[in-house]
Amino acid sequence: MDLKKFSMAVVGGFFAMFIPGGLWHMLIMHNFYEKYGGDSGLAEPNMLFIILGVLILAVLMAYMYPLGYKDGSPLKEGLRFGVLIGLLWILPYNVIMIGVMGTAKTLVVVDELRHIFEQGIGGIVIGYVYRSKNS
Q: Are 56 and 48 in contact (CB under 8 A)?
């Protein structure tokens, strides 16, 4: 494993997912999440755990990307990979939350689309960091 590329992919992927996620939740869709998100029991979100969660996701994505890379363009392969990750990690969770917490189905659809976009961008950034197996 090329530690330099891996580290760059983690950092790039982290910022590519964290920044849009923050803008989405805090500015663009704040009222939507207040309406459909329910009461979390927290006065304010715990940013330490949000940062840690996105960092863990970026590490896992940066580790997994080279394992399934198909020698396509970084844009195409990164987007394919990121969209797949967005589907794999959040869709089952949200469906379970419908059953466990009564999460609004509207929230599940919007949240899934956001994650497809967010992890898609993260995958593209990671794809551009790795570019090819040989470089």
A: no
The total number of structural domains that make up the chain: 1
Helix (H) or strand (E) holding 57: helix 47-68
135 falls within a domain? no
Spatial distance between the Cα atoms of 32 and 97, rounded to a whole number of angstroms: 18
Tokens of 89: 């990690």
Which contiguous run of DSSP H or E holds residue 126? Answer: helix 105-130
Location of structure tokens 């899934």: 112
Distance in angstroms (rounded) separating the CA atoms of residues 92 and 87: 8
Chain segment 24-70, per-residue pLDDT in tens: 988 888 888 878 776 666 678 889 999 999 999 999 999 999 998 87
pTM confidence score? 0.88
Domain-located, residue 114: yes
Range of the domain at 82: 3-130
